[in-house]
């Protein structure tokens, strides 16, 4: 029987272990994909560091692209209705759910179906073994939305589509960004950079990016940020005052939190104008406790929303957004380092200390 390699996550904060598992033929409704690139998402780091539960031993990684090597019966079209065949380069939804669910059928929130599963969140010992990005192969299981990638998109542009980019389509949609809006983005990692670019594409007149990492502040200007503020060198009140001064006449129309730090919420609220919208998307770990003056929400008509994951339509929009604005924004540069599968530990270290923007694993790099 054929086998392939995976970098197995055995326990939090211990080195990854390269292991071989059997590759079986794709069953009905499945596809077998040869992984060409997977990137390390912040949530992979949270899992690795034990800050959120993830089955061990498992294969992490959910921002994945690859080339279809086998297609089972019953799948012949992608989300857009384009025919799928062996040899196609594809992305796919980071979650899958095969069945009926009130959230999908009635509420149109398939990402929140009870029992929804996610790539990078399964036991490596169980069939079909390969359900994460940090491996040579990945099975796409029934209930996944698959999307064919156009040839002009590089692997670096295409790999973050199915987590970070699609999530930001969902987040910027929820922020209801209108033509002429002033938008503040708290956190300029991959999500924040795409958020800035999408805010501009949705018509924002002014985008302010906040972070404390110098390299991120510098690069944000290339992704649509008109102004950046180093929040590490200024008292919180001064940051609020500066934002309010820049967003005339009375503060930002929308604030987006993608930094994962609950303490920024009271600050973000004070940056908003009356009637402003605040979308939280970075606080993906439990116990993100914070104290806010809820009277401000009432008196100032603030809309506060949380967003997690995305609808399949957002994956299509993410692809179309990157395809249509890749000349305007250097998306490929966000994936700024590449590692072989055997060097996953080094990649995680760099991603964790934020010395790279998005580390990519190229499983077949050494061949
Ligand atoms: Zn992710």
Q: Care to give the gist of this entry?
A:
This protein is an alpha/beta fold and 367 residues long.
Key structural traits:
globular; single chain; six-stranded parallel β-sheet; 25% helix; 17 strands; binds zinc ion; alpha/beta; seven-stranded mixed β-sheet; 11 helices; 367 residues
Give a description of the structure:
Strands 3, 4, 5, 8, 9, 16 and 17 form a seven-stranded mixed beta sheet that branches. The longest helix is centred in the last third of the chain and has 14 residues, at about 310-325. The chain is built from eleven helices and 17 strands. The chain has about 375 residues and is α/β, with parallel strands linked by helices. Strand 10 (about 180-185), helix 5 and strand 11 (about 205-210) form a beta-alpha-beta unit. The chain has helices at about 40-50, 100-105, 155-160, 165-175, 190-200, 215-220, 235-245, 265-270, 295-300, 310-325, 345-350, and strands at about 5-10, 15-20, 30-40, 65-70, 90, 95, 115-120, 135-140, 145-150, 180-185, 205-210, 225-230, 250-255, 270-280, 305, 335-340, 360. The model has no long low-confidence stretch (mean pLDDT about 95). It binds zinc ion (ZN). Zinc ion (ZN) binds near residues 41, 43, 62 and 63.
